[in-house]
Amino acid sequence: MTEPTPNDRQRELIESTEGVYLVDAGPGTGKTFAIARRYGRIVDRPGVEPADVLLATFTRSAATEMKERIVGRSAYGLRELADAPIRTFHSHCHEILREHGYAAPTHLGLDERITGSTRVVDDELIESERFREFFGGFRDDHPEHAEFYRVLSEPGELLDLIRELASKGIFPTTDGWYRDGEAHLDGDFEAFKERFDAANQPRNDGRKQSPLREDLSGFGRDKAYLPDAPSKSELRGGRGTKRLDDDVAREVFHEDRENLKSFVHDAYVEYLRFALRRNYLTFGFLQLFAFVLLREDPRVREAAQFEYVMVDEFQDTSEIQFKLALLLSGTDNFCAVGDWKQSIYSFQYADVRNILDFEERIERFTADLNDDADRISLDATDLTRIELRENYRSTASIIDLSERAIETPAASGEEVDAPLDEVVELSSNAAFDNTVVEGIRHEDEHEAVLSKIQDIVGDDDYAVEDEDGDPRPPEHGDIAVFTRTRDYGRELLDVADEYDFPMAYDGGIELFRTDPAKLLLAWLRILESDADRGWAVVLERAGYAFDEMAHALETESYPDDAVAFRDALRELESVGAVARRVLDRYGYTGDTADLLLHTIQSMYDSTTATRGELLRFVERGVETGTTVDLSANAGDDAVTVQTIHTAKGLEYPIVVMANMNEGRFPPRAGGSSVIEYRDPVGLRLRKRYSEVRDYPHVYDSWRHDVLRRCLPREYDEERRLLYVAVSRAKNHVVFAAGEEPNAFLDALPVAIEETDASVEPVERGEPADAELPFAVTAPDGPIGHTPHSLMDESVFEAAGERMETGTEPEPETRGMDFGSRVHDFAEAYALDDDVTPSNDHERRIVAFLDDLPGELHVEEPVTLPIDVDGRRVTVSGIADLVHETADRVDIVDYKTDSTRRAQSEYEKQLSVYYHVLDEWFADKAVTASLFYTTNGTRERIEPLEFEELRALVRETEPDLD
């Protein structure tokens, strides 16, 4: 294959190796190609080796790809590059600590050490469980923080706070905070005052009240404040006031937070000590200790610094990663490559200001790191900006649409204040531009999306490029459906499965909510305590109906094979072996099963958790919907479904941006944590425990409610997500919405049409996979019947009547319509509802029920299991009335038939009910009868024997013979 020729801007980046560079690399501009060429050019210089160049990437896979790209563009092969510092920040920090980090904790006053055997916990599930273990002991050891335990709803909130503080370089020491960490926790009043004043500025030249005062019109609504909180009028001022008093800013910002800081400090430093004593570090702690070590130990810093530093995906770096990159720079050769418009990982503590305010931050961070010693010699005064402008992915129409997305309001009335002057205009290199941009809308949006995809496939109007750059009709594999949240993707896959539609999910799955995990949890519960909750899942999986299941649980009469399987599991020592045996029993194989096994075993091996605590771990995973990444494969020609976050870095000929609905994209704001850190207000508490009144109570913080209104929700990242979604497309973009399109779709230059939602079933030579990424092999279960399936319908036809389950309306005394009304009345009257009979049939029922003593059970579901020639069969139905007295039980079924010609068939129905109730009420006499509402007579039925019922089943299931 011919080596591509760099364009002018790419060549500038490749050849500019000395100095400080900020590279704006938009989507599809070939940045990886240019970075790899630049790296090869540097290491091929005399006196420069791969060990002299740090290339930091965002993911391990990106590091691997980068090494593969470099091979062939330098004198080095994969063998020589295997140990080269082309890696993530976490991996490089691990290398530093392995080589130099033994005593790193001492810089925080900790006596513990980092050893060569210290493990890295890179699984958030396992880290969360370890933190839960830590926090349980911390609570016992620190009763002085009881007021905060009472307001914390979940220990994970505190872990999230610690992670965030670590990402910002805020660390504890054993006797306080590292350097200026406490100042960050206190916040910056002057910076807050600027926000306050901006929100408190009256509008319309002072004629209209400020946005802040207007927003506080709901102050105190549905809130419980402490007695010292101001009233709404005291806070907002009297009638005619346009703005809040300036003193409010100071009163809101300044509050006593010493106890809060003490609590966070103690938990933070003790968790560090807990992790070190158990010989593990988290990703956040790797960076924490590496940063402290590089800052405090000049010998280590000098040994760790590089002649050249390049950082890819710079928009995804956190504050501490920016500072680490500076500390690792031994010269002025520093290159940051990224695109602020694609910064979408703030939930992983990425800070878009690193790239937007690059010059200001590099100056401020350098001054901070050099505050008491010369640590960084980097001089950014001669910063060079390079803009990659040629897009090799998308058509000009797609590029234009993506640039419109970055300035589109995300909410009604929002004024967009995005840094639009920073948008670098891209030019397209596409072979042709036949782009279709359209919007569809239907209340059944999932079906509408599938229907639209069926219209697109094979349609030349949506032509895509083939390998030679010529147009060809699109296939399923050319299309990706993007969603803002995972739940829509799961719903879409469920609908696709109904039509055998070729579709696969790629991204985060809620591992513990999958069927394999639920069954594993059930068996773990059984092993722990023979819990009904476990047996219920197992019995349901085996095909037991509700009443049958209830009976088995009550009598503990479980299937012999399940009991034997339980006993065999109890003989196994390893949780991993138990999990493998369970998954094998139900035929679960593939990546999801392997991931589940790995997660369970890792949790069990890496903590001191008992089997019971492991159960709670899985249960919490079910409750919280914890996600893990997994890719699915639905074949070579299948539609891909992804969240936008998962799709970043990928490209598709056609993108369907689905679920463009109000409240879904952007998602409605969720509740904030009880303890949170925000710039510039620092560490804050949303709830407070107090015993100030007659009884203890958790109160809302009035200050927090005002502060959050001064720091309104920003939608810039939601716009960037929309930009990322659109810019994945090469040729075409389709937006899809339901009944309430979002503000994005209303503002974009896209025509929205009501569309068809009819989906044609897909006929394929091989079954299509439309599923979450795990395989399910259903075990053989019982054959299901209803009593009506055992009846001979020809009897009803010969009599000129129909079974009451028929669908055609008949004369008043026959058919489902009238019969259903009579049955509904009988049920309501037996339940003492306020109903009045409207015909003679109902009046006869009233007279019949009024004469019955004892207890009435209405509409009782019943299931009869029958073994027929080695196969298990269940016959399930609903008994209209079960009348129970002290010594007998009567089963009554209402019939509106005008004749008795079908009574022999009704005997089959009542026989099923009889045998179930006869087992339920073994100590009472059980009878079965029909109550004919045409004349109010009651006909006793002699039930069929079990063998007669078996014969009826054989007649309906010839394969059983």
Keyword list:
single chain, 961 residues, alpha/beta, nine-stranded mixed β-sheet, six-stranded parallel β-sheet, 17% strand
Structural class: alpha/beta
The percentage helix is: 40-55%
Regions with pLDDT < 50 over 5+ consecutive residues? 765-782, 796-816
Distance from first to last alpha carbon: 65 Å
Shape: globular
Beta-strand residue percentage: 15-25%
pLDDT averaged over residues: 87
Number of strands: 33
How many helices does DSSP assign? 38
Overall radius of gyration: 35 Å
Largest sheet: number of strands, sense, barrel closure? 9 strands, mixed
Fold and architecture overview:
It is a single chain. The chain is an alpha/beta fold and 961 residues long. Helix content is 41%, strand content 17%. It has 38 helices and 33 strands. Strands 13, 16, 17, 18, 19, 20, 25, 26 and 27 form a 9-stranded mixed beta sheet that branches. Strand 29 and strand 30 form a beta hairpin. Helix 6 (124-141) crosses helix 14 (258-277) and helix 24 (532-541) crosses helix 25 (546-555). The protein is globular.
